[in-house]
């Protein structure tokens, strides 16, 4: 019985530490699918990240300049402006070019992946392959908060 209590305390302390490490970190989530946003942002919020949501691509660049997020999760197909165009503009702008950008999309054609990498995306994830509860580990890894984080993929 005592061992289980210690294990539980260890897990709770670990979660508490991860929560405090992420506090104050902002993620701008550029996604027009409300259901998808709610599913993925819940796991990030539970980890302590501040989530800022933008639905319309034409508002994304200005929101980045105002909010100064630590990381951007960016869909490709958006109303107003495509994710690739947003990425290009962000990486060409002095104030925003060092912000980490993860493409999170269902459009993983070779041309989209190559273009995103060429424009400076830090990662490219297919929505249907990422388990929402594991996205915080990927984010933590990209932000240098975790050494051994991995995203689990569904086959």
Summarize the structure.
With 155 residues, the chain is of the alpha/beta class.
Number of helices: 6
List unreliable stretches of 5+ residues: 1-11, 149-155
Inertia-based shape: globular
Rounded to the nearest angstrom, the radius of gyration is 16 Å
Major sheet description: 5 strands, parallel
Intertermini distance: 37 Å
* Strand line-up of the largest beta sheet: 2-1-3-4-5
The run of helices and strands is HEHEHEHEHEH
Overall mean confidence score, pLDDT = 85
SS content category:
alpha/beta
Name given to the CATH homologous superfamily: Response regulator
Using the 3D structure, state the CATH architecture: 3-Layer(aba) Sandwich
Helix content: 40-55%
Which CATH class is shown? Alpha Beta
CATH topology: Rossmann fold
Query: What is the subunit arrangement here?
Result: single chain
Could you characterize the architecture of this molecule?
The chain is of the alpha/beta class. It has a single domain, classed as Rossmann fold (3-Layer(aba) Sandwich), CATH 3.40.50.2300. The chain is 45% helix and 15% strand. It is built from 6 helices and 5 strands. It has helices at residues 2-22, 34-46, 60-67, 83-92, 110-119, 135-142; strands at 26-30, 50-54, 71-74, 100-105, 123-126. The protein has a 5-stranded parallel beta sheet with strand order 2-1-3-4-5, sandwiched between helices. Helix 4 (83-92) packs parallel to helix 5. It is globular, with a radius of gyration of 16 Å. The N and C termini lie far apart (37 Å).
